[in-house]
Amino acid sequence: MGRKWNNIKEKKASKDANTSRVYAKFGIEIYVAAKKGEPDPESNQALKFVLERAKTYNVPRAIIDRALEKAKGNSEESYSELRYEGFGPSGSMIIVDTLTNNVNRTVADVRSVFNKNGGSMGVNGSVSYMFSPTAVIGIEGKTSDEVLELLMEADLDFRDITEEEESIIIYAEPEQFHAIQSALKQAGITEFTVAELTMLAQNYVTLPEDELAKFEKLVDTLEDLEDVQRVYHNVEFPEE
């Protein structure tokens, strides 16, 4: 698939380890998903997915409960889901997904980060055509052959199954996410190392060391923005 998912997640986890930033962003994402329908994951698939993802990031129960209670209450706070596309050093490609209650602030902040870090904003569609929406599910305690057999017996489609360190990573179409996870749960698998709907680049590029440092600063600064939920890109980072 061009990149090791666990390496990406471990890098983000170490970056977020000493902050509450990731939890605050999950709080907003849970609130928005709950407001889209019933604040019950059994009847709200969007909420169910966000809660599964939050679990893999060890989001505290208090954060989750607070967001759900807010959604159940009379809060009229509304958020817009916006996607921005742009280019980093050496023509690298970046997608930025945001949840915001102030669109003017968000677009100004995102554009400023691109401009100050050797990048540039693009128009809608200028980058996303080079990425594929993908479901990524990671588990431990099974071999790739066992997972392959399990999914085939359940008559489920998938793109790829890879062994990454101690995890088995399943890549599939987004619409297969819940079906695959349900099949794994029926097989007794209740813990997931990864549970994501993401955007994977069709091709990854390697940057020279000096350009890579600039690119990493650009991505880190984008991720630090209050309204930014996720950043996707097509740059291959060396394994540490």
From TrEMBL:
One MF term in the entry's GO annotations: DNA binding
According to the UniProt entry, where is the signal peptide?
Answer: none
Q: Where in the cell is it found?
A: Cytoplasm
A Pfam family hit: Transcrip_reg
Protein species of origin:
Paenibacillus solanacearum
Identify the residues that the record assigns to the TACO1/YebC-like N-terminal domain, covering every copy.
3-74
Q: Which GO terms describe its cellular component?
A: cytosol
Q: What is this protein called?
A: Probable transcriptional regulatory protein PAESOLCIP111_04308
PANTHER family this protein is in? TRANSLATIONAL ACTIVATOR OF CYTOCHROME C OXIDASE 1 (PTHR12532:SF0)
Name the family: Belongs to the TACO1 family. YeeN subfamily.
Q: Which NCBIfam families match?
A: PRK00110.1 (NF001030), PRK12378.1 (NF009044), YebC/PmpR family DNA-binding transcriptional regulator (TIGR01033)
Q: Which GO terms describe its biological process?
A: regulation of DNA-templated transcription
Quick one: where is this thing mainly located? Answer: cytoplasm
Q: Which domain of life is it from?
A: Bacteria
Asked whether the UniProt record includes Repeat among its keywords, one would answer no
UniProt keyword annotations, A-Z: Cytoplasm, DNA-binding, Transcription, Transcription regulation
Question: Where does the TACO1/YebC-like second and third domain lie?
Answer: 79-235
